[in-house]
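Below is how a single chain appears once it has passed through the pipeline. First comes the sequence as given, then the structure the pipeline wrote out for it. We keep one example in the README because the format questions we get most often are answered faster by looking than by reading.
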Amino acid sequence: MLETILAISGKPGLYKLVSRGNRSLIVESIDSRHHRFPAFATDRVISLADIAMYTDEEEVPLADVLTAIQKKENGGKSSLDVKKASKEELFDYLGEVLPAFDRDRVHPSDVKKLLQWYNLLIENGLDDFSKMRPTEGDNIDDRQEANEQ
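Resulting structure:
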């Protein structure tokens, strides 16, 4: 499922891959508006399945981090208000769900974005993170390059 949930650089929120157009991907916002529009090859589009969090040892897939947050929150939205949280509060929260995260390479804005994405996914019923494992050889960049040809 994470393969079809996308983040687009410069655009807030998350998007669901709906279809592939000629030289573009057709995406729909994951919110109450469900706005559809094309995402072109010039847009930096990344599948959530391809995102990982830095730790002291290795990168942890985003699906594992989301699952840990879900477990901490008993399936509900995040208890931390990211708009009001300090850097220390954000890092303490992430430390509870991912104790070995790399404090040098993970920024407070990364934690805010993670929690905002988590809340957005939970609000819209996209909460089965076990189906969100990356699949070998299937990433959005490969699909986008195929559309350009």
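The radius of gyration is 16 Å.

See the next section for the split statistics.
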